[in-house]
């Protein structure tokens, strides 16, 4: 479903060329649970941004659902992000001015979905994630776990096919982290493709497919038998 | 994105930074208030002057003896001018488009009634005086005789004369002595007040021919010609000039058209209003710099948020729209506040100093508000473009 062909990404730092990704060939199937691990600077975040169409490869191709999305213009890429990709970040990235419900609503506002439908969808999600009584709270009135649950609700409200999580438990204590991870894994039942970037081996080990990266290359790609 | 959502999103940031947004909006508000206040006073002055000049009536052309001009050499025989006569006035009356012709002269004489004496202004006028000018007779009427030497000794008196000489009694039909001659009072004028320094209530109106004799004048001081409103002043001026030159042999008279005088006055006042508005415009410019500053700050502070919006599927254009509308709404609200302040102060001034004429034209208010919105738009463009062009990955990691 997702295919990276010969993808390279180089950054220019000062007058030096730094390769963040080198010749990545990767194929992800629908409904897979993948963890990407590696030390910092190994290129796992760049990989995630690449998969999320936030970054463009310096060379190579990105195929999504059979179509080449490498050369799409800004508007088309924004549309793909909106409709097919959900992001969950380490630092939650909630808009502090908006309530929990409004944060969840945000992607639908950008997609021009009518207000009644938005309201209904938000309500269902908030209930599923146990946030009903927190809907009108601002992010700074929520606990870390609640914030990340709001962020997951926001990432899934558009029913994406891929969910990209960048260190989703990095800012949470152990117990809350596990809860959040369970929530993310629960989405697999609905057929979502889950990609988790982490440097925590214990978390990475939960995925069926574990990819290890080093210096911008994939050094191992293991599938665990179910 | 729907307009309602756009407004909800942008207003959420005003509500968060209340004080900051208020102060920025205030910058625009002060500018708009200054423009509104100054133009209100300018426009009020404009209308006041026009009203003062046109309260005699419109569509009036005045012919006066003597040519206003400077010439080389001795003035000699060309300097002398023939007086304007009642015959001249009769000749003008026969011109096309002319409605009324009122010969006129002013002087001073003593009026006496039953032992009371008062020195007052004597206006020698024509019988159509009340029809041509916007001055009405309160009771009685003007004389109906032709404006010639046989005019009967009849007078219309001003309201102040009625007060002073008759103590409010009905003067119609009584005999009033003006400069030693007996005049039958046939009318009383409505109170008019002062016109360009002349108290029109403290005056008596008598036939021009009588006044020339009484004041011992060889000619009239002016002949006022009122013409049909649908005819341009220039046409009538040309006709008058032709007829008068024909009668006098040369152009020894001056024609003053009220329309032309008003046009000049009006254009001068327009320039004053404009200059005053330009002064206010400078304060608007300062307000615009405030908006630019605040929006630049907002983009820097909310870089991570911009990155998030892009990750959630916002197009560059949507980010641009969000920040542009924020700048626009901010200055539109500031402009609205300025309108209220400006109109408030000018009306307050009017209450404090009723003599100060104040008028806020709606067009100016609308223009001022549009200016405010345009300023917001212009000041918001650069920061909004910067926001839209941020690299999403870098923006997400800014904090």
Shape of chain B: elongated
Major sheet of chain A, described briefly? Answer: 6 strands, mixed
The amount of helix of chain A comes to 25-40%
Largest interface: A-B, 29 and 27 residues
Structural class of chain A: alpha/beta
Q: How does the major sheet of chain B shape up?
A: 6 strands, mixed, barrel
Number of contiguous helices of chain B: 13
**Helix-strand string of chain A:** EEEHEEHEHHHEHEHEE
CATH T-level fold name of chain A: Rossmann fold
Second-tier CATH architecture of chain A: 3-Layer(aba) Sandwich
Query: Termini of chain B, distance in Å?
Result: 27 Å
Q: What share of the residues of chain A does DSSP label as strand, in percent?
A: 25-35%
Question: What does this entry look like structurally?
Answer:
The complex is a heterodimer of chains A (226) and B (399). Chain A is of the alpha/beta class and 226 residues long. Chain A is 33% helix and 29% strand. Chain A has seven helices and ten strands. In chain A, strands 6-7-8-3-9-10 form a six-stranded mixed β-sheet. Chain A has a four-stranded antiparallel β-sheet with strand order 2-1-4-5, covered by helices on one side. In chain A, helix 3 (100-110) packs across helix 4 (115-128) and helix 3 (100-110) runs parallel beside helix 5. Chain A starts with a strand and ends with a strand. Chain B has two domains: 3-52 and 263-396, no CATH class; 82-251, no CATH class. Chain B is elongated. Chain B starts with a helix and ends with a helix. The model of chain B has no long low-confidence stretch (mean pLDDT 87).
């Amino acid at each position: 479903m997702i295919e990276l062909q010969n993808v390279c990404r180089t950054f220019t730092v000062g007058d030096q060329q730094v390769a963040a990704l080198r010749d990545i060939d990767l194929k992800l199937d629908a409904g897979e649970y993948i963890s990407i691990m590696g030390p910092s600077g190994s290129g796992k975040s760049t990989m995630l941004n690449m998969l999320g169409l936030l970054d463009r490869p310096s060379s190579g191709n990105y195929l999504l659902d059979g179509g080449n999305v490498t050369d799409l213009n800004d508007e088309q890429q924004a549309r793909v992000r909106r409709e097919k990709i959900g992001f969950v970040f380490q630092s939650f990235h909630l808009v502090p001015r908006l309530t929990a419900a409004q944060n969840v609503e945000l992607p639908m506002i950008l997609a021009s979905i009518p207000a009644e439908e938005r309201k209904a969808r938000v309500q269902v999600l908030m209930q599923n994630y146990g946030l009903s009584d927190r809907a009108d709270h601002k992010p700074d009135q929520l606990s870390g776990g609640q914030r990340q649950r709001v962020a997951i609700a926001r990432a899934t409200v558009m029913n994406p096919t891929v969910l990209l999580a960048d260190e989703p438990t990095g800012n949470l204590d152990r117990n809350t982290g596990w809860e959040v991870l369970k929530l993310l894994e629960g989405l697999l039942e609905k057929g979502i493709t889950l990609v988790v970037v982490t440097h925590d081996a214990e978390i990475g080990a939960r995925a069926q497919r574990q990819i290890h990266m080093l210096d911008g290359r994939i050094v191992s790609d293991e599938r665990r038998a179910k | 994105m729907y307009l309602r959502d756009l407004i909800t999103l942008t207003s959420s940031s005003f509500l968060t930074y209340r004080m900051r947004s208020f102060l920025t909006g205030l910058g625009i508000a002060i500018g708009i208030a200054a423009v509104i206040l100054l133009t209100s006073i300018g426009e009020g002055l404009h209308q006041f002057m026009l009203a003062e000049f046109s309260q005699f009536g419109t569509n009036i052309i005045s012919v006066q003896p003597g040519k206003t001009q400077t010439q080389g050499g001795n003035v000699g025989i060309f300097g002398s001018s023939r007086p304007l006569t009642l015959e001249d006035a009769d000749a003008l009356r026969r011109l096309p488009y002319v409605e009324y012709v009122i010969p006129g002269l002013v002087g001073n004489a003593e009026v006496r009634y039953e032992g009371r004496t008062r020195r007052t202004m004597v206006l020698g006028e024509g019988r159509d005086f009340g029809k041509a000018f916007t001055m009405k007779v309160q009771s009685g009427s003007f004389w109906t005789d032709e404006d010639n030497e046989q005019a009967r000794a009849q007078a219309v008196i001003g309201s102040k004369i009625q007060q002073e000489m008759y103590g409010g009694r009905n003067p119609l039909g009584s005999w009033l002595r003006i400069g030693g001659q007996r005049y039958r009072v046939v009318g009383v004028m409505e109170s008019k007040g002062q016109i360009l320094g002349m108290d029109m209530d403290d005056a008596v109106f008598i036939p021009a021919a009588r006044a020339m004799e009484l004041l011992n004048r060889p000619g009239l001081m002016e002949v006022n010609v009122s013409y049909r409103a649908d005819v341009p002043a220039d046409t009538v001026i040309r006709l008058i000039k032709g007829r008068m030159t024909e009668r006098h042999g040369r152009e020894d008279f001056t024609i003053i058209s009220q329309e032309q005088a008003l046009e000049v006055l009006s254009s001068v006042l327009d320039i004053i209003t404009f200059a005053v508005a330009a002064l206010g415009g400078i304060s608007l410019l300062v307000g615009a710099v405030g908006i630019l500053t605040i929006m630049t700050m907002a983009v820097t502070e909310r870089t991570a948020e911009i990155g998030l919006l892009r990750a959630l599927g916002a197009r560059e254009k949507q980010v641009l729209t969000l920040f542009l509308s924020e700048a626009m709404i901010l200055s539109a609200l500031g402009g609205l506040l300025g309108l209220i302040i400006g109109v408030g102060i000018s009306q307050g001034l009017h209450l404090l100093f009723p003599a100060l004429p104040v008028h806020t034209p709606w067009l100016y208010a609308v223009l001022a508000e549009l200016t405010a919105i345009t300023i917001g738009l212009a000041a918001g463009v650069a920061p909004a473009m910067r926001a839209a062009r941020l690299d999403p990955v870098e923006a997400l990691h800014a904090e």
